[in-house]
Design a protein that fits this description.
The protein is of the alpha/beta class and 410 residues long. The protein has helices at 6-12, 76-81, 101-108, 159-162, 203-222, 237-249, 261-270, 285-295, 310-319, 340-345, 360-368, 387-395, 397-400; strands at 2-3, 34-35, 57-61, 67-71, 89-98, 111-112, 115-116, 121-122, 126-134, 146-149, 187-191, 195-197, 230-233, 254-258, 275-278, 302-305, 325-328, 349-352, 378-383, 404-408. Helix 6 (237-249) links the parallel strand 13 (230-233) and strand 14 (254-258). Helix 5 crosses helix 6, helix 5 packs across helix 11 and helix 8 (285-295) packs across helix 9 (310-319).
């Protein structure tokens, strides 16, 4: 059973502003409707009344692969009154959001594996912003706090949750993964426990903590240590972030690959000692793997695969020596062929990663202390109203030179 607030009911009777209208029907599956277990009206504390003036808008895609910006929830009235806040929640004015490869996939392909876009769907999960309202039950955050948003919601009951590996929660609701709407909005309500204070860190850096968390999770599980020879496959945002982490961890030598020379040049810029390998068409997986190994002096023990491309995973398997490890961070197609006998006869471990857990505090420390500087990875910035252009720029990275595209809402 769903309850619709009077403010939302009033809005439902009115047509959308022509500036944002895509379809004339507002669907109940969207964020306007908030399921509650009982009719409780939750207000922000008097000292926490927000200054929300602009209408809330979001970035949507659908099964037809349309992409557009239109009105979203919570409404301005709900934000001002706090009536849509549930126990333990805060309202965040989102200031900066990065476009992830998964956002492009959901828009252009409508799915990633079993996660399918079936309705109008709000994208985005790499965000930071300012707290503008708090539910009275929240004690650890106040209006004005600058936070990075960890886009998770877990059950706290299943084995992965209880053992600290909550990225495997059996009831995970991950923002921007269908059917859960994402963070590419002006205002969002979210559980306070997943809002991490960032102090005077920029909102851009705060948004970049999410992809940094992906790399940190991979580094931790792959057990990269001082002096380890490492191959990084793919010099996209995650690959370059992983390069920063490996360099900070003292890995040596480091080899990074890509099909795009511009991205390899950026890799060399942020880590001058990295060795680069441009993947050329027509080169076999065995040849590519051998060339990568040669660049590292034949000593590669670990490959961190950040592209999710089948041929890249195979080349990584051919690059590491006996007893080595290929750790796949990237996300690819549902079914792949791999060189099984190479893995078997060389006792190569093949491991995988799904998102992250317990990474935000570490990520914040690394950025605040200056150990990691991610600013060079941001190549383009767009206002929220121009989000369609932002997505087009990110999707055409080979032509635009885009690495990380950020969408901002001042």
């Amino acid at each position: 059973m769903s309850r619709v607030s009077p403010a939302v009911r009033s809005l439902l009777r009115q047509p959308y502003s022509s500036q944002w209208r895509k379809t004339p029907v507002l669907r109940s599956s969207q964020a306007w409707v908030k399921p509650v277990s009982q009719p409780v009206r939750c207000l922000a504390t008097p000292a926490a009344m927000p200054s929300a003036s602009k209408e809330n808008i979001g970035v949507y895609c659908n099964p037809a692969h349309d992409l557009w910006v239109k009105e979203s929830g919570p409404s301005v009235n709900e934000v001002k009154s706090g009536e849509a806040l549930q126990e333990g929640e805060v309202t965040i004015a989102i200031k900066s959001t990065g476009i992830c490869g998964s956002d492009i996939h959901f828009w252009r392909h409508g799915r990633i594996g079993p996660m399918v876009v079936e309705h109008d769907h709000i994208l985005g999960h790499e965000s930071a912003g300012e707290i503008i309202a708090v539910h009275p039950s929240v004690k650890n955050l106040s209006v004005g706090d600058r936070v990075a948003v960890e886009p998770s919601s877990i059950c706290n009951k299943c084995e992965p949750c209880l053992t600290g590996r909550y990225n495997g929660c059996l009831e995970m609701r991950f923002m921007s993964t269908p059917p859960v709407d994402g963070l590419l909005r002006r205002y969002v309500n979210h559980s306070a426990i997943w809002c991490h204070k960032i102090g005077d860190m920029s909102y851009e850096d705060g948004a970049m903590l999410e992809p940094l968390s992906v790399s940190l999770a991979g580094m931790h599980r792959a057990q990269i240590a001082l002096g380890d020879p490492v191959l990084i496959c793919g010099a996209g945002p995650i690959g370059l972030m992983t390069l920063l982490c490996c360099a900070a961890a003292g890995a040596e030598p480091i080899v990074i690959t890509d099909i795009d020379q511009n991205r390899l040049d950026v890799a060399k810029e942020i880590c001058p000692r990295v060795k680069t390998y441009k993947v050329e068409p027509g080169v076999s997986m065995e040849e590519a793997g051998a060339a990568m190994s040669k660049l590292a002096g034949g000593s590669l023990t670990t490959a961190l695969e950040c592209s999710g491309v089948e041929s890249s995973i195979a080349a990584a398997i051919y690059s590491v020596k006996f007893g080595g490890k290929v750790f796949v961070i990237g996300v690819g197609k549902p079914d792949m062929q791999i060189p099984f006998m190479r893995l078997s006869t060389q006792e190569i471990d093949l491991q995988f990663q799904y998102r992250y857990a317990n990474t935000w505090p570490r990520a914040i420390r690394l950025v605040q202390s200056g150990v990691l500087d991610m600013k060079r990875l941001v190549t383009h910035r767009f206002d929220l109203e121009d989000a369609v252009s932002a997505f087009e720029t990110s999707a055409a990275s080979a032509k635009t030179g885009a690495i990380k595209v950020l969408i901002q809402s001042p």
